[in-house]
Amino acid sequence: MRHRPVLVAITATLFASQITTKQAPSALRAFYNKARSGGDCTGADALQTGFYNTEWSGGHTTYCTKYLPTGKGFYLKGPGSDLANMDIDCDGEQSRGDGRCKSSTDTQGQTRWGLKHLEKHGVRDLNANLHPYVVLGNEGGYSPTFDPRTVGVEPLSIVAVVCADELVYGVWGDTNGDDNEHPMVGEASLALATACYGPSISGNSGHDEADVLYIAFAGKEAVPARAKWDADSYEAFEESITAQGDQLVSQLFGDRSTATGGSDPHHTSAAPIDSDSDSDSDDDDDGSSKHSDKSDGARRSTIPRLCHTILVALIALVC
């Protein structure tokens, strides 16, 4: 009995630090598997080639449109079955952090787009501790370079990220500069990476496996209409862009299970991707067998998996 107050306090702390993610819907998981099993991205499917997932990986990662409708966006595709990894970006506003960004050795005080576009919203810049942003595009004194705006992707537009079979929405908030020897790709803010992989993530410790899918959407309809840029938590900001992100995913992939209620001022129709042909051959990445008790994309996980495990262990200990 004497353990009960401790258990209550720990439980409250875990719930207070909840992270919002959702299971990737079936059509998006099918696209994920198709992209990974489809080999290299070459020819007309490659918007630009020659980028590095890590400094030692070789310049084999591509801004790719393979299997996407023409003009609807792109994703990062490495060689073979690789997609991209997730290094950590801590650029931008430095307040409200929990100290994990202090280990970053290349932090800058501004992001590429937050500083220019958010002043009217009462925010000085994006905050890597709060805003789930993705680093896309390469600019500087190296080669190759790539500007997503040339294919219709707008600054601060919504980006869908599939990580650990979960779907997280971010925004295009920063670009890859020439502070490394090679043109790098595969980077996201601390807030987004924490939503994917938990609190073990820090400024110099990201996710090394090249199994992360970043999908950038082209068009002004991908610019957030109701984003709470001045939100005081990751959860509040993520919630403010989720409905619009769900609309973008359902329009592009033809899976209505992500769609949320209410009208969207940016709603447009788009031809869905035919992913059904690969659904029968999905491997373990699909996750449908492991999550058969969940409706596709509908159940929202509000406790990080690590915290949930700790909570179950504590309950078992007390009981």
UniProtKB/TrEMBL annotation:
Zinc recorded as keyword: no
The protein's superkingdom reads: Eukaryota
InterPro entries linked to this entry: Chitosanase_fungal
Listed under GO cellular component are: extracellular region
Where composition is biased (Acidic residues), the residues are: 275-286
Q: Which reaction does it catalyse?
A: Endohydrolysis of beta-(1->4)-linkages between D-glucosamine residues in a partly acetylated chitosan
Q: Name one GO biological process term.
A: polysaccharide catabolic process
Q: Which GO terms describe its molecular function?
A: chitosanase activity
Q: What is its EC number?
A: 3.2.1.132
Q: Where is this region: Disordered?
A: 255-299
Q: Where in the cell is it found?
A: Secreted
Q: What Pfam families does its record include?
A: Glyco_hydro_75
Compositional bias, Basic and acidic residues, is annotated for 287-299
Q: What class of enzyme is it?
A: hydrolase
Keywords per UniProt: Carbohydrate metabolism, Glycosidase, Hydrolase, Polysaccharide degradation, Secreted, Signal
Signal peptide from the UniProt entry: 1-21
Q: What family classification does the UniProt entry report for this protein?
A: Belongs to the glycosyl hydrolase 75 family.
* Functional description taken from the UniProt entry: Chitosanase catalyzing the endo-type cleavage of chitosan, the deacylated form of chitin. Chitosanase may be crucial in the degradation of the deacetylated portion of chitin in the fungal cell wall.
Provide the protein name. Endo-chitosanase
What organism, scientifically named, is this protein from? Aspergillus fumigatus (strain ATCC MYA-4609 / CBS 101355 / FGSC A1100 / Af293)
Give the taxonomic lineage as stored in the record: Eukaryota, Fungi, Dikarya, Ascomycota, Pezizomycotina
